[in-house]
UniProtKB/TrEMBL annotation:
GO terms for molecular function: alpha-L-arabinofuranosidase activity. Keywords: Glycoprotein, Hydrolase, Signal. Belongs to the glycosyl hydrolase 51 family. Its EC number is 3.2.1.55. It comes from Pedobacter changchengzhani. It catalyses: Hydrolysis of terminal non-reducing alpha-L-arabinofuranoside residues in alpha-L-arabinosides. This is non-reducing end alpha-L-arabinofuranosidase. Pfam families: Alpha-L-AF_C, ASD1_dom. GO terms for biological process: L-arabinose metabolic process. PANTHER family: ALPHA-L-ARABINOFURANOSIDASE 1 (PTHR31776). Residues 469-657 form the Alpha-L-arabinofuranosidase C-terminal domain. The keyword Signal applies.
Amino acid sequence: MTLNLNVKISPIGYITTSLILLFSVFTVTAQTTKIIKINADKTLAKVQPNMWGVFFEDINFGADGGIYAELVKNRSFEFPEPLMGWDVNTKKQKDGEILVLNQYEKNPSNPRYLQITKENDDVQLINKGFRGMGIKKGLRYDFSLSYRLQQPGITMVISLLDEAGKEIGKTDFTPKPSSKDWLKEKLSFVATETSMKGKLSIVFKGSGQIDLDMISLFPGDTWKNRPNGLRADMVKTLEDMKPGFIRFPGGCIVEGRDMANRYQWKNTIGPIEDRKLLLNRWNLEVPNRQTPDYFQTFGLGFFEYFQLSEDIGAEPLPILNAGMACQYNTAEVVSLSELGPYVQDALDLIEFANGAVETTWGKKRAEMGHPKPFNLKMLGIGNENFGPQYVERLKMFTAAIGKKYPNIKVISSAGTDADGRQFDYLNKELRAIDPAFIDEHYYRSAEWFLKNAGRYDNYPRTGSKVFAGEYAVHSGAEASGVKRNNWQSALAAAAFMTGLERNADVVEMASYAPLFAHINAFQWSPDLIWVDNLNIYGSPDFYVQKLFSINKGTDVTPITLNNEKIVGQDGLYASSVLDETKKELIIKIVNSSNKTQQADFEIAGNKKFKKTAQIQEIANGNLIESNSMEKPKAVSPVETTKSLKGKNLNYTLKPYSFNVIKIKYSK
């Protein structure tokens, strides 16, 4: 994700009507059948098993308040405003009754805790969660806290409240005397009603003094029922996409506004209470979408990212800071003479992921419950960094990693733009260094994506491969997000992706960005998957990405129209692959024109094809149609079948449609 808003969000604000006219340029004046030829016996390139992946960044409340299932905001009082997210209710608060105490010298990772001294009147703490708490009727909720009872006599009533303040589940707790030592307590209770924006209430009764920290509430249905777990519906949506990799943790999150605010993976592992809070750099970054309550608690840290990748069968792809802060914020860099610790962080991460349990960092992984290595194969150095200062720092990383871990593939940054002076410089310099991948990003208009569907047709076939690490079509979606992903953006992405697939020997990995967005707390749009506190839906772009990912195949085969690659002729874009494992021919074809087109697919080769094709079609005559919580599948695939005549398939391509055609075969 890029902070250069003028550069990368410039397409936002295009007039939607003019973009529709762009698509309408591709008109078909006569219903002439297009003869599309496929050679099913010829392989042009191998498709990597992990070609289509996902990119996760903690933006749009994607981690805290999103996939990380913790419901309590500011659970350890570490926000700059220690009681942000909390309301304190008393009949008449007395001086010193509620105190936030600081022990930074003793515990810099978790310095603050709350002290309540009670005499008579009840004290109530209410946590409002992340834009409310999603509460489900009949579900168990797991409450926990750390406490130290200094003066006995206090009891607690823990309850869930709905939007109106009605109690919808509760339990009681009598703390044990603890004086010096902190104790941990876990309680569970069941919600009696559903609430979209519920709250947690803690009422303190009696008299005495108690210290509180790490006040937490998790739903009982986390992914794989793990404590401190992830939101199951969000993980399941990712799993259903069958991504080949997960790139994490960003994005601009990696860089930080300055070096002090950069992402440091070592601060995100180990006991939850020892993971030091960090400002989320998207907190105040987008002027009209400021979220001053947005921080990173790192409950979702590098261990959990690796574990998530393993859970859903995706390869982990971590990105590390290259000793450079965001060049559009402060452009702060670490001098070359002081870069050693940053390089060592990269080496230590590889050991954390892959090292034996006898190693320093392999032991830490084992202590967290995963003695088996995570089998890390690739590692990114820097996010959207550019200029000679990046090149000289990258060289130091690649030399050290290559020497100690020669099998680890290094991914380098091609900066923020897909063309121009900055990109041309980097592309030349990086290819001289010869990293495994060059990470190209593009946030552009629908017009750009259509015009660049053949971008990689003439790229070099040797040397560094391309990682299309971040891309999204911005087709008239205002930065406010009132118009999010629409069918036009998804259709243009599909056309572009046929070009990525057709050039799978050049582009070996690709991922859309950003991944998640909370409808009440997002900074950036468009986004692939949208959530509220209880529900989730995929955008039109989500269905395009999913269809490519679950139908990636193993071998690229030739597909032509008039003996040419299909890159915009009459608004058509196409790619073709074989899946040698499933024994399928898979054709992906986009009709970006406003007219119906007849296509006759002529399949050459010695394979014996089944008589019926399975087709997944997304078509909508309204280019600005989008999905929503109310209409989650307004733009989504429809499955049909079509009979072949011999090895020919005659098929009608609807206006503004993306079609995936699968035909089984045997040799």
